[in-house]
Design goal:
Largest sheet of chain A: none
Number of helices of chain A: 8
Helix content of chain A: 55-70%
Shape of chain A: globular
Largest sheet of chain B: none
Radius of gyration of chain A: 19 Å
Number of strands of chain B: 0
Oligomer: heterodimer
Distance between the termini of chain B: 39 Å
Number of helices of chain B: 7
Structural class of chain A: mainly alpha
Radius of gyration of chain B: 16 Å
Helix content of chain B: over 70%
Structural class of chain B: mainly alpha
Strand content of chain A: under 5%
Chain lengths: 231, 170
C-alpha cells in the first residue's frame, strides 16, 4: 500500500502559480512549449554546428543577448509589428540555411540570427503571467533558450560524418517545412484579425495548453526573493 | 534550522545574490588559479564585513537596478573573457561583497542570531566560489571554456531583461 501510495501520488496544486519558483518554471516552459520557438532555436544550434568555429559559439552567445533586447521591448510594451510572421520566418530562413548549407561571413550569420532573436524575445517579454517574479521568469526563458541551442549543437555534431551531413540538411528542410506551416497559420490568424494564434492551436505543444497569451504584465519584483527571513 | 542555516539558505535561494557571486566565480576561474584564490578570500570577507556593517542600518535595497547592474557587468565580463588585472578582480570582489552583504545585513537588526547568520552567508559564498572557480580553473578544453562564456551571456541577458523591468517600472 505504501509503495502504491508513493508511486501513484499526484502533485498538489492548491497554490499553483503563486510561488517564486513558478516564475522560473513559467519562463523555462515558455520557449519549449511553442513548437515555433523550438524549431527556430534548435535550428540556430544546427546551423552553428554546421558552420563550425567560431559560429558554433558566436551564434548561441549572440542569440540570448539580442533576444533579451527584444524581451525588453516586450516588457516596455513597445509593439513590434508582425511578431508571429517574424518567428515563422526565422524557422523558414534558418532551416533553409541548414538545408542548403549556406556559409555566410560570421558577421552576417550573427546579424541574421540576432534579427530573428528580437522577435522571439519580444514574444517572451509580452507574456509574463501577472504576479510572477520577472527575474526568475527571465532567467527561466534565457536558460531554456540556451538549452535548445545546446540540443541543436548536439544534434549538429552528426555533421562530422558523411551520412550525418545529409541527415542534417534533411533536418534543416524539416525545420523550414515547419516554419512554412507556422507562417500559414500566422497569415490565417492575421486575416481573421487576431494578433497571435490561440493557445489551443497546433503551434502549442501538449504541456502548454494553459499557457497565457498576451496577458497584461506588471513588474514582479514584489515577489522577489530578496526579502530576508529569520527563523 | 537556526541562524547559520538561514544565512546559508539565503544565498542559495536568492538569485539576486547567488547569480552575481556565481558570475564572479566563473570570471575568476576563467582567469586562473591566482584570480580564483583572490576572489575566494576577498568576496566572502567583504560579504561578511558588509553584512556586519548593515546590521544596524534600516532595511535597504538597490532594487532591480542594482541586480541588473551586477548581472550585466559580471555576465558581460565573463562573455568577453575580460583580461582583468588581479587588482581589478580584488576591487570587483570587494565591491560585490560589500554591497550585497550590506543589503543582506540591513534590516536584520543587531543580535547574536544575526551575527551568526552573517557567518552563514559568508560561508555559503566561500563554498560557492571554491567549487565553481576550482571547477572552471581546471577546464582546459576550448569548448568547455566557451560553455562558461555562454553561461555568462545568459547572465548578461537576464540582466538586460531586468533593466527592461526597471525602465518599465519608472
Amino acid at each position: 500500500m505504501a509503495v502504491l501510495a508513493t508511486f501513484c501520488a499526484q502533485s498538489a496544486f492548491a497554490h499553483v502559480g503563486q510561488t517564486t519558483a513558478q516564475g522560473f518554471l513559467t519562463g523555462f516552459l515558455h520557449p519549449i512549449s511553442g513548437a515555433d520557438h523550438v524549431l527556430a532555436m534548435v535550428a540556430v544550434g544546427l546551423w552553428g554546428a554546421q558552420l563550425g568555429a567560431p559560429a558554433i559559439w558566436v551564434l548561441p552567445v549572440a542569440f540570448p543577448l539580442v533576444m533579451a533586447m527584444g524581451g525588453m521591448l516586450g516588457f516596455l510594451g513597445l509593439p513590434i509589428p508582425g511578431i508571429e510572421y517574424g518567428i515563422a520566418a526565422s524557422a523558414i530562413v534558418l532551416g533553409a540555411a541548414v538545408a542548403f548549407e549556406v556559409r555566410p561571413p560570421i558577421v552576417v550569420a550573427a546579424l541574421l540570427v540576432g534579427l530573428f532573436a528580437i522577435f522571439h524575445g519580444h514574444a517572451h517579454g509580452t507574456e509574463l503571467p501577472p504576479g510572477q517574479s520577472a527575474l526568475l521568469y527571465s532567467m527561466g526563458f534565457v536558460i531554456a533558450t540556451g538549452c535548445l541551442h545546446a540540443m541543436g549543437i548536439g544534434i549538429g555534431t552528426v555533421h562530422r560524418r558523411s551520412w550525418g551531413q545529409k541527415l542534417l540538411r534533411a533536418a534543416g528542410a524539416g525545420v523550414t517545412a515547419g516554419g512554412v506551416f507556422f507562417m500559414w497559420k500566422a497569415v490565417a490568424c492575421g486575416l481573421r484579425g487576431r494578433s497571435r494564434p490561440a493557445p489551443s492551436s497546433g503551434s502549442r505543444l501538449p504541456w502548454a495548453a494553459d499557457r497565457p497569451t498576451r496577458t497584461s504584465i506588471r513588474p514582479g519584483w514584489a515577489r522577489s526573493t530578496t526579502a530576508w527571513r529569520m527563523s | 534550522m537556526g541562524p547559520v542555516y538561514d544565512g546559508l539558505a539565503h544565498v542559495l535561494t536568492s538569485p539576486e545574490d547567488l547569480v552575481p557571486a556565481l558570475a564572479l566565480a566563473l570570471l575568476a576561474g576563467l582567469r586562473g588559479a591566482d584570480y580564483g584564490r583572490r576572489a575566494l578570500f576577498a568576496l566572502p570577507a567583504a560579504w561578511l564585513l558588509g553584512t556586519l556593517s548593515g546590521l544596524t542600518a534600516a532595511a535597504a535595497s538597490t532594487g532591480a537596478l542594482g541586480a541588473a547592474f551586477w548581472f550585466l557587468l559580471l555576465g558581460g565580463l565573463v562573455v568577453a573573457d575580460a583580461k582583468l588585472s588581479l587588482r581589478t578582480m580584488t576591487v570587483l570582489s570587494a565591491l560585490l561583497g560589500l554591497v550585497h552583504g550590506y543589503l543582506n545585513g540591513s534590516g536584520m537588526g543587531l543580535s547574536v542570531s544575526a551575527i551568526v547568520a552573517a557567518l552563514g552567508l559568508a560561508a555559503a559564498v566561500f563554498v560557492l566560489v571554491v567549487l565553481v572557480a576550482a571547477l572552471v580553473v581546471r577546464l582546459q578544453a576550448h569548448w568547455a571554456r566557451i560553455a562558461v562564456r555562454v553561461g555568462g551571456s545568459w547572465i548578461a541577458a537576464s540582466g538586460l531583461l531586468m533593466l527592461g523591468w526597471v525602465v518599465r517600472g519608472t
